[in-house]
Amino acid sequence: MAKYLDPKADLTFKKIFGEHKHLVISLLNAMLPLEDDERITSIEYWPAEKIPDRTEAEKYSIVDVCCKDNKQREFIVEMQMSWTDSFKRRVLLNASKAYVAQTEKGMNYASLQPVYALNFVNARFMEEVDDYYHYYHLVHDKYTDQVIDGLHLVFVELPKFKPTSFSDKKMQVLWLRFLTEINEKTSEVPAELLENAEVTEALEIVERAAFSDDEMRAYDKFWDRVSTQRTYEEEIKQKADVLMRHAEEKVKQAEAKVEQAEAKVEQAETQRRQAEAKAEQAEAKVEQAEAKVEQAEAKAEQAEAKAEQAETQRRQAEAKAEQAEAKAEQAKAQRRQAEAKAEQAEAKAEQADAQRRQADAQRRLAEEKLTQKDIDTARKMKALGSDPAFIVQITGLSLEQVNAL
């Protein structure tokens, strides 16, 4: 006979966490994203009338424990045995209701406390990622340090959990190992679980011997209902898959017909474009022929214009030739006049040069006489002891010349 019962069942989960405050406090502190100064120290369970209503199907697949701590923060702990896409919205709705219900007590907005919804899911629902822990809250899409505190939703995919190391979040690993490894097949409890007092206490609570026959019947009935629910969901899923495949097949057939129709339309469009292309080619040939006629006429007109232009140019050339001859005769006459003027200018230049040479000779003679006279005067004055500067002033010689005497 099995020694332990599965802690995920309605009866066992509520016995552990719905009747032992210190154990649910340990679980919440281990599983929720709380800072050290935010850790839970005490709790009070919600009254029965405040627990969210369940549909008939949810009664057999969802187990919950609800409580609040001394800071008036509220906590909803759920064990979900199956998964549907609507569960996230249902969890958000229940957490929102708990948040809004605070205002019914006369609290103002500033005193509203956050609500935490911790959801253990005994099924995989995010196959595209490997992580088992999913935390949702209101955060700025760009500045992730900007958070609106209020609703905190945590989903834990139990089938994905694989214990790795105890160095990080030890109690989280221990509680998850307890929830995933302990069941009716457990014959020996791992030593790591027995080393922790809180987990050991939870193990004692789920020992089969601690349950009455009525409780065991309720326990077995829970799993029967879960199994029935899963079978029902699997049948629904299979039927949905069949319907989906049929729908996909019809869609494919419709798409094939659409493709055929589109192909015919494209073919007709191609034929239309080809006909238009041929018409355009014919028009282009007519235009080319007309263009050639126009080109021939234009060439004829150009030839006539060139002939007229050539005749005009010939007459202009003859007139220019006559003008050139006249200018040449005039240039010859002007050249002869210039040559005569040049000869006259050369004669005058030679005469002026002769006069200049004669004047230079006379000037040199005068300078030689003047200079010799000044030198004699300077010698006499120097012999008499006159000041050299005075001698320079009288004779006009330079100071160097006076000192050299």
Q: What attributes characterize this protein structure?
A:
405 residues; alpha/beta; 6 strands
| Helix-residue proportion | 55-70%
Strand order of the largest sheet: 1-2-3-4-6-5
- SS elements, strand count: 6
The string of secondary-structure elements, in order, is HHEHEEHEEEHHHHHH
Main sheet specs: 6 strands, mixed
Give a written overview of the molecule.
The structure is a single chain. The chain contains ten helices and six strands, in the order H-H-E-H-E-E-H-E-E-E-H-H-H-H-H-H. It is an alpha/beta fold and about 400 residues long. It has a domain at about 10-210. It has a six-stranded mixed sheet, with helices on both faces. Strand 5 (about 135-140) and strand 6 form a beta hairpin. The longest helix has about 170 residues, at about 215-385. The protein is elongated and about 165 Å long. The chain starts with 9 loop residues before the first helix and ends with a helix.
In summary, what is this structure?
With 405 residues, the protein is an alpha/beta fold.
Topology of helices and strands:
Layout: H1 10-17, H2 21-31, E1 43-45, H3 56-61, E2 62-69, E3 74-80, H4 87-101, E4 115-121, E5 133-139, E6 147-157, H5 170-181, H6 191-194, H7 197-205, H8 213-383, H9 388-395, H10 399-404
Parallel strand pairs: 3-4, 4-6
Antiparallel strand pairs: 1-2, 2-3, 5-6
Helix pairs in contact: 2-5, 8-9
